[in-house]
Write a structure and sequence with these properties.
Low-confidence stretches: 1-9, 11-26
Oligomer: single chain
Distance between the termini: 29 Å
Strand order of the largest sheet: 1-2-3-4-7-8-9-10-11-12-13-14-15-16-17-18
CATH superfamily: Porin
Number of domains: 1
Number of helices: 4
CATH topology: Porin
Largest sheet: 16 strands, antiparallel, barrel
Structural class: mainly beta
Amino acid sequence: MIRAVRSLPSLLAALILSSQPLAGQSPSLFGERGDSRLWLGGQANLILQGHGLFKSPYEGPNSLRPIRERALSRVFTLYSDFRFTRTTEMLIDLESAGGKGISDAFGLAGFTDLDVVRNPQLGSTPYLARAQIHSILPLSSQQEPATRGPLSGFAQTPIRYVEVRVGKMGTVDSFDVNSVGSDSHLQFLNWTIDNNGAYDYAADTRGYSLGTVVEYHQPLWSARGGVLLMPRVANGIKLDHDIRHARGENFEVEWRLVPATTMRFLVYRNLARMGSYREALSTSSPDITLSRRRGRTKHGLGWNAEHELTDRLRAFARLGWNDGRNESFAYTEVDRTAAAGFDFRPFSRRRLDKLGVAVVANGLSGPHRDYLAAGGLGFLLGDGALRYGPERIVEGYYTASFGRGIYLSLDIQAIRDPGYNRDRGPVVVPGTRLHVDF
């Protein structure tokens, strides 16, 4: 697999040079859709990754394996928006996620493939990803153009309005969004670059939840709040409907400071049947699952920003923190994070081609690192021991467009102290991605 990855840069370069200029081309296989009541679309995303041998004097049940590995993930999604009235629509998406990630997605806090379902036993049987009522309540008569897509079928929106979503959705459809670093289908692949790693947002194993999100929009700023269901157990597929004792509360303010700059500030609190790291450490064989109690909390903060430096160069940054007292429950095992990066369109006549580079450093709270050092297992991590160091990751990608809606990417990630363990690694994970948007 490594030899194949090494040969791909020359192949990709040849394809870029031989293909026709794409200026003015639609990013979708079937082009732009009009303003009909029904909007249909879809995506296919295939990611192949692998790594070679790396230093590993010991390993545990949840370690990144130090052997040569390769893994292919695949996600197919069908989107539908049906507009009942000028201001209300229903969104229904069907999805199939198959394949797996390297080491079955264990051993890294900043895992290398956001498309991976963290429980490979679920298989690729299609499931309902989103099913929601989406409504806009106008607060002004003046309208502006909007881009129709999977999360909204409206071709126009008021310049001031309230937006309501009720039903099944992804929490990060609305919160912690960043146009430079949020899309694993065309941008970065790493979990903690595409999302705030310290944001333990409400979601089941596949990344979806049930709830309500309400947003207020005006030209200079927006505010949004949402309450969504937490899983019954850490990384579980079933949601806990005891909303009195289990829910994710989210609030975010977004400022568009100047036309080229956007900043978002996020606060959240989770209630769930979580375990306590300190309680788990009080036993001779730490097991976080034995300390779980109903109604425990986790609260955290997040910040992200994006800035358009030129018409072809954009930069972004993220910071995140949570209290780290109780177990990581729904996203990944990160209690502190800092990330920054950029994307660049290198060819003026190929406006859909893009190059990106980002770095991220992830960390743990004291109780969390002590638990892992004592041999405890989280839902993603557990080497059996730990010589702690922040997990540091550098990722670079190049995405090239070949015809309507077809994209091929090369990606490489270099990881130091995988799973926060200075005794293991470093490891380099090259990969390729094929994406079709229709």
